[in-house]
């Protein structure tokens, strides 16, 4: 059964793809580029590898490089020379290392708070809400998180200010005479950051809890395990992956906030991101110090995250087959 | 017993919802306040602040600037992210795990460090602070997300679809554009909207990489430093509306089978 | 060679240490319906995929109409495949799916449209041109997949268990349809299945595969009545396997000793040596039976243990003595004439195949 189409002298245009594959230029160019598996691989790999090196690794390596400079940006006519000054500066002043350790401790504490806060919510969503309505319940808590860092930080200001909602309510019930100065303290800062990051804890928790087959709990209940025992022995271990992912994510994100500590924090709660940013202010312009501080922080946080992942026994990435 | 815990859980959930929504609702409410002063009590309401925002050419142009950056950085992220996902799912080669780690690296670099390193990098490349630098910074941040979403989608594509296309005479390029890309499209639209949201909301990269022209969050930040005003509330509320609509759309597209 | 459509010479495929296909030789004539039959994991799909260009053979050559195509990628091979899951492109309509291969041949819009309509009509899919695959039934999808693969007019059509996804009833119907489509188009079909009944119903020629090798290559009738190996005898249909010793050769027949009973059987391959242990098979329905002792060789008396009525046929479980049993199937009409608990049977030497392997 072959097609019985007679060649037609009239206009019988080709579709786009017919035209393309019979086009001489396309044939010669892509015939060559796709000609061998090696060339196909090159075509596929060139851009991603370039991006990974140029856009992802490049900035971090350059930052490391600059951290060893005497001065940067270079003033006209000056040669760059290498020095360890920027790195040693970190260890020489409390003004630098105290905020650094404060940031680590602070982020760890906030990560834990976010875990405690969102675990019951995730548990409720995954285990108590009927399957067909989970999406709806999830969307409700998702919406506020699409609003950016700045706007949500601002919302916290309105909530906690001296004339903010909390103080007004407390005053209304006669619980306080004078407004409580929540703002510009570690409290307002913690409140704000937990408010910003809790979604990054909630989602991994939810997806790991949702995967636990519900008959697992029923089986344990049949065996006479009490509610708490079931939770400790079954639910918690099975949601370990979600806890691990959520904690790493939240920890890394909370160390990286800049605007929130500037807006909500006070002098006693200066975080390391502010210290880093100050080295780039017009007045200071000590880029090598900023680069060195950033490098110290990056190396520390990534190492901590890696160690944590290792302890929790989670390394492989499921997406790579 | 179970009913009891269920009830407590439900209360915790709704308390969490309140915790999330109260600050934002207060913020929207303050935008209607007929006074320059942010705080309670609210004596009378007005629409002036909202009307002001919509009429203010400066703010509208900032919106436009933010959108331009969001769209450009998202376009770059979609191309690179899809490309990387194709490489990571369709080819097998030495060092794949390393490349995967490198491609997704920006997802785990804390915001401030990402911003600072990009600031230094663009300086050494001779890119002055400004739109180009911000677009690059946002694209760097978005690529891992697009890559992960695309990889998940590509892993679920039946191999036989690709083989069938080749069997019928399609080369690798035609197969990609006619079979694989259409399969990816819903995921890419969803991912794209999220990238736009991230870019639109981003402060730290825009702040350090931006020039004199601010993006919306940078503008709000600058305003905040000089004091609160209902005008900021109105701008924020408008942004909130836009992001909620975009987010819901993306969510729909990403979950669609 | 020029007369063949596809020819495999010493084809092997190893995945690391796994031997998927080993030394396959096959020459297919134009218009033949050839089936690869075998249990799961025996290498059927791998063989088919090598013909399609999706796997590169570890060794051996593939010729298509005389040309060596071993190293030609699938998109440049004039061979098309129907996949087990059909692999219809979900975002395209039936019409667009069928047009896909035509467009890539550089056909004009009009040529493409004409050929698509022709095929839709041929497959009785007239009203379904603008439906997406998920708006079609299983059988319709199967036909669209077939039309899509036929559209570019390939030399050979490869089908990898294309009926696997259909339910039993539809499957029977589609088997007949598929066979008639093959007849009408005159195309060479190479079909893969693990269902022996399907293979026997549809094929001109069946290759039984086991552990990557071809066990037997022949017509369905041949395979059924004259299996050459124990594997084939076992795999296809129900059978009696008699463990015998060769006691000599008598003309074209082999004289056998079945634990004390003398039988004559035929051997299609090289004659066995005297004293060799061999398996001998005969199908239950190739055994003829008599109420009283007939006058011919290869006759034995059986003791009936059980009779099972199966509608048109009746099956008897019988024994010769405590070490030897036989299953016999008779037309129910003939079976009624057998009363009592013994019967005489004749094992026709032409149906008593001696297996060396
Ligand atoms: N890509 C591969 N990598 C490693 N081993 C493979 C691969 N493909 C097939 N095999 C192995 O080769 C052997 C033959 O596989 P093949 O798919 O050809 O079997 P099949 O006869 O089609 O079986 P089925 O009826 O189950 O489809 C099997 O042992 C299988 O595990
Ligand atoms: Mg198979």
Structure, described:
- The complex is a heterotrimer of chains A (about 325), B (about 260) and C (about 350).
- Chain A is built from 15 helices and no strands.
- By secondary structure, chain A is mostly helical.
- The radius of gyration of chain A is 28 Å and the shape is extended.
- The two termini of chain A are about 45 Å apart.
- With about 260 residues, chain B is an all-alpha fold.
- Chain B has a single domain (about 45-255), classed as Orthogonal Bundle (MetI-like fold), CATH 1.10.3720.10.
- Chain B is globular and about 75 Å long.
- With about 350 residues, chain C is of the alpha+beta class.
- Chain C folds into two domains: about 5-230, 3-Layer(aba) Sandwich (Rossmann fold); about 240-355, OB fold (Dihydrolipoamide Acetyltransferase, E2P), CATH 2.40.50.
- Chain C contains nine helices and 20 strands.
- In chain C, a hairpin with a 2-residue loop joins strand 9 and strand 10.
- In chain C, helix 2 packs across helix 3 (about 110-120).
- The longest helix of chain C has 18 residues, at about 170-185.
- Chains in contact: A-B, A-C, B-C.
- At the A-C interface, helix 1 of A face helix 3 of C.
- The structure holds adenosine-5'-triphosphate and magnesium ion (MG).
Question: Termini of chain B, distance in Å?
Answer: 38 Å
Rounded mean pLDDT score of chain B: 89
How large a portion of the residues of chain A is in β-strands, by DSSP E? under 5%
So what's the overall shape of chain A? Answer: extended
- The proportion of strand residues of chain B reads under 5%
- Could you give me the name of the CATH homologous superfamily of chain B? MetI-like
Total of DSSP H or I helical runs spanning 4+ residues of chain B: 11
Specify Rg of chain B, calculated over alpha carbons: 23 Å
Number of domains of chain B: 1
> DSSP helix count of chain A?
15
Query: What percentage of residues of chain A falls in helices of 4 or more residues?
Result: 55-70%
> What fold name goes in the CATH topology slot of the largest domain in chain A?
MetI-like fold
The main sheet of chain A comes to: none
Largest pleated sheet of chain B = none
